[in-house]
Amino acid sequence: MQRYRIAVIAGDGIGREVIPAGKAVLEAAVAGSAELVWTDLPWGSDYYRETGAMMPADGIETLKGFDAIYLGAVGDPPHIPDHVTLWGLMLPIRKALDMHVNVRPIRLLPGITGPLRDKGPADIDMIFVRENTEGEYAGVGGRIHVGTPYEVALQTAVFSRFNVERVVRYAFELARTRRRHLTSVTKSNAQQYSMVFWDEVVAAVAADYPDVEVQSLLVDAAAALMVRAPERFDVVVASNLFADILTDLGGALMGSLGLAPSANLTADPALPSLFEPIHGSAPDIAGRGVANPLGAIWAGAMMLEHLGEADAAARVMRAIEATTAEGTTLTPDLGGTASTDQVAERVIAHLSAS
Ligand code: NAD
Ligand code: MN
User: Fold this and answer.
1) Signal peptide span per the entry (predicted)?
2) What is the DSSP letter of 108?
3) Which residue, of 118, 158, 190, 297, has the greatest Cβ tally within 10 A?
4) Is residue 313 within 8 Å of residue 305, measured between CB atoms?
5) Catalytic residue (one of 40, 125, 199, 248)
6) Which CATH number is 298's domain given?
7) Segments of the chain with pLDDT less than 70
């Protein structure tokens, strides 16, 4: 039987609620066909309070020994500044393990009433490819004359040809597996260096994919169009910041941010990729057992698929859809009254029935 070693970073807040729910579903999905060997890593804000760091100094080395990483969320506002939690764990992991793309499906699931009147599951079905290691989150910049009236803060975006090209190529390849339509989101009118460069890379790579139709949109127009005509999007490629923002909008189009999953895929086959819901630690609802686990479960399905367990992954997806279509066991963010665990149990029940 195939064994997979999975590092688990439940993290903070509702991460600690949705990840156990996800593990239970994944266990049920592979029962009898594969073995998931979980290693829980107690990293995050409590670890920071005890040690002064979000993860150990050799944390990245530790992660390299796994087949995949399953993460909940990190962040403990207002006790620890968000830039500390983010830069202490998520961003270094993405960079050090060369997780060049962040793949984020945005899909209205059956039975869910989204916020858009007249738009159903056939209209809202897109997938974002987010540049994930540089761009606006490259961490380049600085502050001078701090605290004085002469203070200046710089946050520099970095776009390298090598990286943009591989991210864009990934998006074209993905488009080929779907409706052969790619939207590239930029802001080339205002950002005449980085985004004009991005447009040029997209045009160059497009020459290798004459069968894929390319649409180029400015990010502000793209935000409006996602609401007005979401059916005009299939695969979308965008920079780190733009895709971060647009995928939260996407989560809203799905009916809840708690439904949206993501895969941080490494470019190095020897390294693990990381799978997580796109939501954060949600301190406003943490500790009550009512967080929606479906985004974390969906991220788990993406992990199974990535590990080569396509069958089990597809069964988890069908069980998620059966649960939303049925509509009796949903968390409060979707208008239901069920707990996190009850939703997970319901998904497992549908798995067993399939
Ligand atoms: P958030 O995603 O945690 O919450 C936004 C809103 O969506 C809240 O009202 C929350 O209750 C709701 N929500 C989110 N997930 C839900 C779920 N599964 N079920 C039901 N409702 C859900 O975003 P935020 O409040 O801006 O950030 C909180 C903290 O999380 C911050 O510290 C932030 O930096 C961090 N964060 C971490 C990650 C990550 O670890 N990858 C991602 C985003 C935000
Ligand atoms: Mn985000």
Assistant:
1) none
2) P
3) 297
4) yes
5) 248
6) 3.40.718.10
7) none
